[in-house]
Amino acid sequence: MSKKAASIDMTAMCDVAFLLLTFFILTATAKIPEALPVDTPASTVQTKLPETDLATITVGGGKVFFDLKGREVRKRTLELMGQKYGVTFTEDDSNKFALMDGFGVPIQSLKQIIDMKAADRAKAGQPGVPKDSLDNQLKEWIYNARIANIEVADKELQIAIKGDAKEEYPAIKQVMDILQDQKINSFNLVTGLRAKDK
Question: With contact defined as beta carbons under 8 Å apart, do 174 and 59 qualify?
Fold first, then answer.
């Protein structure tokens, strides 16, 4: 008996492969570069940070950046900070601020950062949120973010400190002191995961 070579029609499989590829490309989101990239210290703790009701203070290179979860909370915090420092933000500014990542500028320069594109913000050379005794804007951001979170979400705001592994201790301690001045004695320290020693 003569044997015929078997042939498989690959058309359907190619169609499915391209449909899946197209689906994953169109639904994927690009990772936005961090405003202040830091190399966190290693730890074996696996507790995850909450997805909502969280403010993150990033410390690195002598700079401090502030980030807040929740669009409505961010808008209300910006409104309270504008009232405190006499800076007027438009509705468009407020909507853009609600969508952007962390920032590290004085409130007086925040409008310029809000008007930039996301890619340009990382290259803007932000000097950090002022935290010295004469102009402690970081303290005001934390205070107003806590008020806004209670007004909007009716929950207490949780704080996380994300410090660079090479950052000197006094810089982290200064942030902790600002938190303790507001009676915040419970906060998270963000670390990178490493394997447990055997």
Answer: no
